[in-house]
């Protein structure tokens, strides 16, 4: 069978991460009887010095994977002591370039590893100072299906449902906004597009998504033969998508020995390991041949997780920002998606930053994102530059 990287024989079974030993991450036996977003377990967590005056609660809830099957997912809720009942709730989708449980946001918050940090803590403290509560979902799911963007959107929406249902947090009628950048922006943007059909009952006032990879097909094609400094992220996405779609995208049977070694090394890897293994590489280095994208099922998986090809549109205001010369993602696919949203009547504010590359654009967008979100929670009419 020809898959993402071409035909092969070895390593056909997906390589899943080592399960987290903490039972709060495990699915209960009766999960199929639960509704999407239903709270399965809560755990008060130790306070965090990075978020002073803020209570931390880990929530396990029922969500749905890409095949429509029930899964258990988790989200960390930050609730400032000065919040008001039913005050604003921001679901922030953190960048999770990862394939293993130790890279989950809920784990990173308490990790002593200096390479694992919530670098957005300053911006999140600005949000908490406003009295907003914050949900930080582990949006890659229990198998860390990096690249499975639709899954991330569903987990994000179910995490919001769960946050509002946790007893004692007084979020039952909270207005909701969503935000995220890069991989977190992908989960945010998909949540916004899926909400009208997946979670129509949620009172979402707006979504801010930056640096969104809206076309995975184009991203794969860009590193077909040309070496790329961030190829590890493409390799990780292929591994993650194989986990979520093992019958349709079995990359293991298409990897050469070097590719199988890389998959083994990355099976539980976080950002630094992923980037190191793939730095300066291309598909040619890890594939058994170069029959890239010749299989309809493989291509369909990529398209199903590419927002540019999804026919749904948000029914909420959207703020979108990116670098006009971003070397990691196809900017014209972002522009095409924005144009489709505008044509559908979405109140879209799309901005480009002065940054020439991907990550600094995230930082430059923060002041505008906070101002835009603040205005949505105040009920101001959303701007549009369509």
Automatic annotation (TrEMBL):
UniProt-listed Gene3D superfamilies: 1.10.260.130, alpha/beta hydrolase (3.40.50.1820)
Protein name: Lipase family protein
Source organism: Nocardia aurea
SUPFAM superfamilies associated with the record: alpha/beta-Hydrolases (SSF53474)
């Amino acid at each position: 069978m020809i898959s993402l990287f071409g035909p092969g024989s070895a390593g056909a079974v997906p390589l899943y991460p080592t399960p987290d030993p903490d039972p709060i991450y495990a699915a209960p036996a009766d999960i199929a009887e639960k509704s999407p977003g239903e709270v399965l377990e809560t755990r008060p967590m130790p306070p965090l010095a990075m978020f002073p005056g803020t209570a931390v609660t880990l929530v396990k809830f029922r969500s749905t994977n890409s095949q429509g099957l029930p899964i258990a997912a988790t989200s960390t809720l930050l609730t400032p002591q000065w919040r008001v009942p039913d005050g604003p709730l921001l679901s922030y989708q953190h960048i999770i370039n990862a394939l293993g449980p130790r890279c989950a946001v809920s784990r990173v918050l308490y990790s002593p590893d200096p390479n694992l940090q919530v670098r957005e803590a300053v911006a999140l403290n600005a949000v908490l100072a406003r009295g907003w509560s914050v949900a930080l979902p582990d949006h890659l799911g229990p198998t860390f299906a990096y690249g499975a963007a639709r899954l991330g959107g569903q987990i994000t929406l179910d995490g919001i449902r769960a946050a509002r249902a946790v007893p004692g947090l007084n979020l039952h009628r909270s207005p909701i906004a969503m935000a995220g950048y890069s991989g977190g922006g992908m989960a945010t943007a998909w949540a916004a597009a899926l909400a009208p059909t997946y979670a129509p009952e949620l009172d979402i006032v707006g979504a801010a998504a930056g640096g969104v990879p809206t076309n995975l097909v184009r991203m794969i094609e860009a590193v077909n033969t040309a070496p790329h400094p961030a190829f590890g992220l493409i390799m990780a996405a292929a591994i993650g998508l194989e986990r979520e779609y093992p019958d349709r995208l079995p990359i293991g049977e298409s990897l050469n020995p070097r590719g199988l070694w890389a998959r083994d090394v990355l099976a539980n890897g976080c950002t630094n390991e992923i980037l190191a293994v793939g730095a300066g590489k291309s598909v040619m280095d890890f594939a058994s041949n170069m029959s890239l994208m010749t299989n309809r099922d493989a291509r369909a998986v990529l398209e199903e997780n590419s927002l540019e090809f999804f026919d749904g549109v948000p029914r909420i205001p959207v703020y979108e920002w990116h670098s006009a010369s971003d070397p990691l993602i196809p900017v014209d696919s972002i522009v095409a998606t924005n144009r489709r949203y505008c044509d559908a009547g979405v109140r879209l504010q799309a901005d480009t930053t002065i940054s020439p590359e991907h990550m600094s654009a995230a930082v430059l967008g923060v002041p505008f994102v906070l101002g835009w979100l603040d205005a949505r929670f105040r009920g101001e009419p959303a701007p549009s530059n369509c």
